[in-house]
Known about the structure:
The chain has one helix and three strands; from the N terminus they run E-E-E-H. The protein is an alpha+beta fold.
Amino acid sequence: xxxxxxxxxxxxxxxxxxxxxxxxxxxxxxxxxxxxxxxxxxxxxxxxxxxxxxxxxxxxxxxxxxxx
Length: 68
């Protein structure tokens, strides 16, 4: 993370004290678990792309752990 403008108050050159990893997500959709990934080129706004669909969250997590 780098210093940036605060999204809540607009203060400049603020250092984040916490963050949430949103590069990969698992979303449930109609009984399937969809693995989504946003590349670094997306920068400030995510550009999610579907990597796969799985019958369970466990299978989706296995896929992500094998990817690394």
